[in-house]
Amino acid sequence: MNAPIGAGTASLSYGELSLDNTKMKDGSSWGAGTMYSYPLSKRTSVYAAYSYFSNDKYSLPMQTQLAPITGGGQIGIGAVGESNYAIGAGMTHSF
């Protein structure tokens, strides 16, 4: 979802991933984020963003099932039962 605020644009997002297990407890992970982008010129803007992710204590079985597909170890955002956040800022320029 985007909304104009002042000269810039604010964005909000939410996502959830859940697994319906038959032989073990169901696992779920969710995340939410916000970002604000401010134009400096017609082609250049700056932005700041914040994201929060949360895994319940049963989220790990779903993440390890994907490992054979990617050829790596455990994948996903964070560890089982763990919450994480990310902060970012940057500049974009269109050529």
Automatic annotation (TrEMBL):
Gene3D superfamilies: Porin. It comes from the Bacteria. Residues 3-57 form the Porin domain. InterPro entries: Gram_neg_porin_domain, Porin_dom_sf. This is Porin. It comes from Candidatus Accumulibacter phosphatis.
